[in-house]
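User: Sequence in, structure out. Go.
Assistant: Echoing your sequence, followed by the structure tokens.
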Amino acid sequence: MSKIEADDLFKISTSFLKKHGYFKNWLAGTIASYSSCSGKSSVSVEVVMREDGGCFRIQFIQNRGTNEETNFDHQIPLTTTPCRFGGRRYWFKCTLYKNDRYCGKRVGVLYKRGDYLACRHCFNLTYSSRNENRRHVPLFPQFGIMDIEKKIAEQQKRVKVPYYRGRPTKQQRKLDRLWDEYVAFAKRYNLLE
């Protein structure tokens, strides 16, 4: 049985909340409002900080195409760990019970699947990038070349200034590594003419 890919699910991360100032003291707001084939949804979050970590509250309001609204209200404990050079790193504690066992894992990202929020381990999720090469490269190496070409095209858009003071910029070095990967892959599968 294949795993569900995490890339397709709604997720919330501690890095997103920190970036937008939710861990300063107390902050609440709507972070997303979207439409899908099943109706309209909005996501509201609230973070309450305490000395021992705090609490993260997330509310989903879903209208599934009918006049009914379905509300989900989850409270997730927050915990912190000290960083090496000062400050704190924030974590969610997964609150899902699976097979009558409490997960309680310290995670940076929670995913919404159905009516629940949990870590990727509880939902048995994978990432699409983990499945890419297994799908087609051994039988059809041309698809592997196409993947690298796609990455090269995306990286070329990011390179604004290729060289600064005669040295390649960070983005240009990434592009050069992709070109090296492209040539090595093509030689391995005899795709160069």
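User: And one key feature?
Assistant: The chain has two domains: 4-126, 128-188.
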